[in-house]
Design a protein that fits this description.
By secondary structure, this protein is α+β, with helices and mostly antiparallel strands. The chain contains four helices and nine strands, in the order E-E-E-H-E-E-E-E-E-H-H-E-H. The strands form two sheets. A six-stranded antiparallel beta sheet has the order 1-2-3-9-8-5. The protein has a three-stranded antiparallel beta sheet with strand order 4-6-7.
């Protein structure tokens, strides 16, 4: 199971890349493996604002439909539009081309609540 050390993680199996006050969010390799083949993703609109823990979209896979929750509060500044026509990129490259959204962080202290790679590895066993 791929768990890049340079990222932060949530117990809901999302990864977070922090670059100053911009965070890129996707789902982990573990999550996409559990979901199975992803066939559709519903994304928020650029400019939408969310509070930590709110649903920002859904991921539909062969096995199930899952909500995607934001691990931080802020404004959506970019969505991965490629996923609208090629949601399988999440299965093929969860930590690269399969990124989902970029958020301009509004509360930096929320980053302290995220897991390190080592902590996340313990969660997934």
């Amino acid at each position: 199971m791929n768990v890049p050390k340079n990222l932060k993680y949530t117990r809901d199996h999302e990864w977070i890349l922090v670059e100053d006050d911009i965070v890129t969010i996707g789902i982990t390799d573990h999550a996409q493996g559990e979901l199975g083949d992803i066939i559709f993703i519903e994304l928020p609109e650029e400019g939408d604002t969310f509070e930590k823990g709110e649903s920002i979209g859904t991921i539909e896979a062969v096995k199930t439909v899952a909500d995607l929750f934001t691990p931080v509060s802020g404004e959506i500044i970019e969505i991965n539009e490629d996923l609208e026509d090629a949601s399988e990129k999440i299965n093929n490259d969860a930590f690269g081309e399969g990124w989902i959204v970029k958020i301009k962080l509004s509360t930096s202290s929320e980053l302290d609540e995220l897991l390190t790679a080592e902590e996340y590895e313990k969660v997934i066993g």
